[in-house]
């Protein structure tokens, strides 16, 4: 296990990478995904328009629902790069798929975001107010 000092939580090192998680969630080939992954700031993302195409056209209903959930979490609940879904969101969906509760990770990330905004005295909260109410 690898402990990240800038994180309020830890995760195991042997988790699948962004590419493999996207392959699992979307059902698309490695080549398809590699061609669409973008670097935005300090993280990798996939454009929403590519996910939208999967939602509209994928023959597997379960995969369409998975991609739709990924999109909602990535664009609405935890937006990081405008019009893109961040790799951290695939971690969340991967954990949900394995029946692991993401609540501690969500709360830790929300706390860090609020704390960063408070320290800077500016910026915007990256997270979902409804989750804080829960």
From TrEMBL:
It holds the Pfam family DUF7745. Residues 8-132 form the DUF7745 domain. It comes from the Eukaryota. This is DUF7745 domain-containing protein. It comes from Gossypium trilobum.
